[in-house]
Each structure stands twice: as structure tokens, then as C-alpha cells.
Write a structure and sequence with these properties.
The chain is α/β, with parallel strands linked by helices. It contains 22 helices and 14 strands.
């Protein structure tokens, strides 16, 4: 009976619904609870995901680095030319020591003016050749650096724009253009030239060993000590220089932002607060820069002092060897000169280490940026599409976030129609505008323009087909004509005027001091908000787009501006264009045929404007009556 009870109990434990049993070495039963197992599995899965992300990040960085290497290798032939020139330059560096050797050991002993004259003429010629070769290799490296920057300018500029828009690799994107300049400065700097000279340093050591082994040993030991100092300089200043660069960039960005919002800073009495914050960032930048400069100066001074000491020590050792008749006075002087020449590249690297370190940091940052933001693949040139736009179950997750801002949105717009997109703040209207213009990519579903998905169009081509007026309108530094022409280097005057007339902004622009040639800037207060918005509408219409997306187009408009806006929308519809208007004000949807109502990122209603508005009013009345009944008050 007891055995049966034990068996029943064992079966109960074995079949326990909340866990599985395991047998220990002692034979006791232990239940492993699912929550424990799930916790362990969760930790393992998290660790695996981190490893996968790290591996994927490393692969992307390697891809970006390969792109940089490929561009650098375009100048491989020029690098080899510089290496050959460096060989001859360093070979000609022996001119000075050999001249001293012959002066002290031959000319002075023979007192021959003819020999002195011949040697001097030969040395002048050799030094001239060395100067020409050194000058030419410097010019070649200048062209190599310029070529590298020119080849990478468009790629890095596009990657910075795309990364900033899509929040990819934001840290590297913030310094992308500066990183490219840092690499260009490194290529043209004396630091890189010193690397070309380093392989020939053993040639000078060999010459010193030929004079006397003891002098060669002193030279090698001194060089090893300088190399150790150089490595200490690298490890000590690397983090300091990175921190100084980051702090300097942060203070500059803050200053630029404050300058861009100078009107608000003045009007709200924020000058002292803005200065205090800028000064705090500036102080951090200066502290970091001074700290890095102090450490670098310490190593530079140490290197220079030790190099001078070594040369003096070489002279002292040479003098001793002369006294014991193991060396000639000429060899003593020549050995000291050779030592100085052998140690010059190392000293140059230590002195230029900040440039070298910044170039390496730029190379690393660009590798990350280019790897995470691949170049756009060439696309088939599609014909000009019709004004037919279809959204199919579109779900949008804003870059850098986990939660969807739009979920399963579907609608269709035909040529000659205007759609008003309405909803409360945060309902997803601006998100939809960004997706419709190709700024953000949908996480699910498709947006099709005349049957083709938006990602089948090149971004610049898509921008010509879909005009966009963002919620926050900003002008670039230039003239009104250049701004309407989207900063084109060769604006088409006819298209500029046509766009302005379609936007009903032509008369307004003509009343400005210089008309279409009136200069404007992002920080200029010459134009009102309404004028800027109407110029922005003309910019959206430049180039005859088939779809026009307007995000809060009347937020800064007065009554005349609103009338002009509705007139422009009516004209676009008559031309067979499709218009989508994200709006809060009823006046903005006056010319709309359809309404799309968004609520918490989902489509609440879509259809003819009058039907949707009537349904919303009916629902609002039902809700109000229901609330009145539930309150118990008649």
C-alpha cells in the first residue's frame, strides 16, 4: 500500500503540469519550473542576439572599410611613385654625412681647394635634386588626398543625409564630412610622408654600423627608446584626443543651433541661459583640448630632447673613439648627422600624432557609416508616372523606435483628387507624409505610384515626381529663385515662375525688393512665416510633380494665404494631379474630395469628405448622448 502510494506520488510529480522532473545523483526528484527555464533561455537568446548584432555590425564595418580601401587603391600607382621618390630622397640624404666625412678626412688634411670646390658643387647639385624630388612627392600626395576626398565626397554626403534622415549610425553621421576631411589632411600631412621614410631608416643605421659597431648599437638603442615613447604617446593620447574632438564638435553644434534660433533666444530673454550652456560645453571642449595638448606636448618635448641628447652622445662616443684611434673625425661628424636623419621620421610621427590619430578615427567612423548606409543601387529609369497613389496595408515604425506609428493603413488616390488627412496630434499624419515621400521606409506593406513601389524609383527621381511641403518649412542660403528651384545650380526661370504662379505666390514675390533674386537665409527675418510657407509650396510644385504632399500647409497663412492655397489645390486637381493634405484647420480641406481619418496610428475612416464628416458628427452625437445617459442626470 505504501509502495502504491509512493508510485502514485511519483507519477503525480512526474506529470506535474507546472514543470518537469529531473533525477539528481542521489536519486531525489527535482522539479524545474518553466519560469526558470524560460529565464535561462531568455538570457541565452539575449546573449545570442547581442552576438549576432555585434557580428552583423562588424560585417557592415568591414564592408564600409572595403569601400574606403577600394577608393584609396585607385591611387595605388601614385603611392608607388611616392615610394620610389622617397627611396631616392633618403638616398640623397647621405649627401651631408658623406660631404662632412670627405671635408674632415680629405680636404682638411690635403688642404686642396680644388677638391673642396668639386665636392661643394656636387653637393649643391645633389641637394637640388633632393629638394626637387621632395617637392614633387609632396605635390603628388596633395593630389592623392584631393582625389580621395573628391571620389568620396558624393558618397559620404549622401550617406550622411540618409543616416540623419533615417537615424542610422547617428554618431558617425554627425561627423562624416569632418572625418573625410581628417583623412584628406592625414594623406597630405608630413606624418604620412614620415611613414614613407621609415623603411629607409635601417639604411642610416647600417651606415653608422659601418663607421663603428659601438656607434651603431647606441643608435639602435636610442631608436628603440624613441619607439617606446611613440607607442606610449599613442596609448596615452588616443582617448584624450577622441574626447577632445567629441567635446569640440558638441560645443560647435550647440553654438550653431543657438545661432540658428537667435530670434527666439532674443525674444524670450534666453541670452544668458544660452551663453551659460554654450560656455559650459565650450569649457569642456577647452579642458579636453588642453589636456590632450599637454600630454602630446610632453611627449613631443621628450622626443626632441632625447633625440638631441642622442646626437650629442653620438658625438661624445665618436670623440672617444677618435682619441683611441678607432675612428676618424669625419666619421664622428657623419655618424651624428646620420643618427639625426634616422630618428627624424620617428620624431615627426610623435609631433604629428594628433593628425595621425584624427585621420585613423575618421577612417574608423567612415567605415561604420558607409557600412551601415550602403550606396543606392542603380534603378531602371521608369516613365513619368500617372497621379495614381495606392497604400497597401502600410505599417511604419519610425527609425530608432520599436513601436509602430502607423498600422495597416490602406487607401487609394486617383488623378485629379485631393485627400485630406485629419486626426489629433500624434495620430500619425506627419509620419504618413514622410512615408509617402520616400523619406521613411514602411516596415510592412507597400506604397505604389502608378503601380510601381516607391523603392523602385531613384530618390532624386522620386523627389521630382512627388512634391513635398514639410510641416516645418525652412529656406536655404540663396535667392528665392534658387530656393524654389530646389537649389539647382542652373535654375529654369520658366519653371520657377510657373511653380510660383501655381502656388499663387508670384505677385507676392514680385513685391519683394529684388523679386525672385531677393537673397534669403535660414536665419533671415526678412520674410514672414506665411511668405516662407508660400515659397515652400512653390518649391514643392517646381518641376511639375504628379503627386503633391502638403503637411499643415496653412499653419502660418493668413486669410489671403489660405485662399491662395485652396486656389493652388484646385488648379492642381484641374491639371490631373493628386494632392494629399495633412491638416488641423477645416479651411485646409475645403478643396478635398476624400478624407482619411487617423486615430492612434490606425485608419478610422476613409471615403468621400461629406460622408466621412457626417459619420464623424453622428458618432460624436451618439457618444455624447451615451455619456449623458450614463451620468444619471436628465
Amino acid at each position: 500500500m505504501a509502495q502504491g502510494g509512493n508510485r502514485s506520488a511519483r507519477k503525480l510529480v512526474m506529470s506535474a503540469p507546472f514543470g518537469k522532473s529531473t533525477r539528481t545523483e542521489a536519486g531525489a526528484m527535482r522539479i524545474t519550473h518553466p519560469s526558470y527555464r524560460n529565464g535561462v533561455l531568455s538570457e541565452v537568446q539575449t546573449a545570442t542576439k547581442k552576438e549576432d548584432r555585434l557580428q552583423n555590425s562588424n560585417e557592415l564595418t568591414s564592408r564600409g572599410r572595403a569601400e574606403l580601401v577600394e577608393t584609396r587603391n585607385k591611387s595605388r600607382g601614385l603611392y608607388w611613385v611616392v615610394a620610389v621618390f622617397s627611396f631616392f630622397v633618403n638616398l640623397l640624404m647621405l649627401t651631408g654625412p658623406l660631404y662632412m666625412l670627405n671635408i674632415y678626412d680629405r680636404v682638411l688634411s690635403s688642404r686642396s681647394f680644388e677638391t673642396l670646390l668639386a665636392l661643394s658643387v656636387l653637393v649643391a647639385f645633389l641637394y637640388a635634386m633632393m629638394g626637387i624630388l621632395d617637392f614633387v612627392r609632396g605635390r603628388i600626395m596633395g593630389r592623392v588626398g584631393a582625389r580621395f576626398q573628391s571620389d568620396m565626397d558624393r558618397r559620404v554626403f549622401g550617406a550622411v543625409l540618409k543616416a540623419t534622415t533615417n537615424s542610422r549610425a547617428p554618431r558617425e553621421a554627425a561627423t562624416g564630412l569632418r572625418d573625410l576631411e581628417a583623412i584628406q589632411r592625414l594623406i597630405t600631412s608630413p606624418a604620412l610622408m614620415a611613414l614613407f621614410d621609415l623603411p629607409w631608416v635601417p639604411l642610416f643605421f647600417l651606415g653608422i654600423f659601418i663607421f663603428h659597431p659601438l656607434m651603431g648599437i647606441l643608435a639602435v638603442v636610442g631608436a628603440i627608446i624613441l619607439l617606446v615613447v611613440a607607442l606610449l604617446n599613442q596609448f596615452t593620447t588616443r582617448k584624450l584626443l577622441e574626447a577632445a574632438n567629441a567635446a569640440g564638435f558638441a560645443s560647435e553644434q550647440l553654438g550653431t543651433h543657438i545661432r540658428a534660433e537667435s530670434e527666439m533666444v532674443h525674444s524670450l530673454g534666453m541670452r544668458e541661459a544660452a551663453f551659460d550652456r554654450w560656455q559650459l560645453a565650450r569649457g569642456r571642449s577647452l579642458d579636453s583640448a588642453i589636456g590632450a595638448a599637454d600630454v602630446a606636448a610632453r611627449f613631443t618635448a621628450m622626443t626632441r630632447s632625447f633625440r638631441l641628447f642622442l646626437q650629442s652622445a653620438m658625438l661624445g662616443l665618436g670623440a672617444y673613439l677618435v682619441l683611441i684611434n678607432q675612428l676618424t673625425p669625419g666619421a664622428m661628424i657623419a655618424g651624428s648627422i646620420l643618427l639625426g636623419r634616422a630618428l627624424a621620421p620617428i620624431e615627426m610621427l610623435v609631433g604629428q600624432w594628433a593628425v595621425f590619430q584624427r585621420g585613423r578615427e575618421g577612417w574608423r567612423n567612415l567605415s561604420v557609416l558607409l557600412g551601415h548606409v550602403p550606396a543606392d543601387e542603380p534603378r531602371t529609369q521608369l516613365p513619368t508616372p500617372k497621379a495614381s497613389l495606392v497604400a497597401e496595408q502600410v505599417t511604419v515604425v519610425p527609425p530608432g523606435e520599436q513601436q509602430a506609428a502607423l498600422r495597416l493603413i490602406s487607401f487609394a488616390v486617383s488623378p485629379g483628387q485631393a485627400v485630406g488627412v485629419i486626426g489629433a496630434s500624434g495620430s500619425g499624419k506627419s509620419t504618413l507624409a514622410r512615408v509617402l515621400t520616400g523619406v521613411w521606409k514602411p516596415a510592412g506593406g507597400k506604397i505604389r505610384l502608378d503601380g510601381a513601389a516607391l523603392d523602385q524609383f531613384d530618390p532624386d527621381v522620386l523627389g521630382r515626381h512627388i512634391g513635398y511641403l514639410p510641416q516645418r518649412m525652412q529656406l536655404f542660403d540663396g535667392t528665392i529663385k534658387e530656393n524654389i528651384a530646389r537649389m539647382s545650380m542652373a535654375p529654369d526661370d520658366a519653371k520657377v515662375i510657373a511653380a510660383a504662379k501655381t502656388a499663387d505666390a508670384h505677385e507676392m514675390i514680385l513685391k519683394l525688393p529684388d523679386g525672385y533674386d531677393t537673397p534669403v537665409s535660414a536665419a533671415s527675418g526678412r520674410l514672414s512665416g506665411g511668405q516662407i510657407q508660400r515659397i515652400g509650396l512653390a518649391r514643392a510644385l517646381y518641376g511639375d510633380p504628379v503627386i503633391v504632399v502638403l503637411d499643415e500647409p496653412n499653419s502660418n497663412l493668413d486669410n489671403d494665404g489660405s485662399v491662395a492655397l485652396n486656389s493652388a489645390i484646385k488648379g492642381l486637381k484641374a491639371e490631373g494631379k493628386a494632392v494629399l493634405i495633412m491638416a488641423h484647420r477645416p479651411s485646409a480641406i475645403q478643396e478635398c474630395d476624400l478624407l482619411l481619418v487617423l486615430e492612434n496610428g490606425a485608419r478610422r475612416a476613409f471615403g468621400p469628405k461629406d460622408e466621412v464628416l457626417a459619420e464623424m458628427v453622428r458618432n460624436h452625437g451618439d457618444i455624447k448622448r451615451s455619456a449623458g445617459k450614463s451620468g444619471g442626470v436628465s
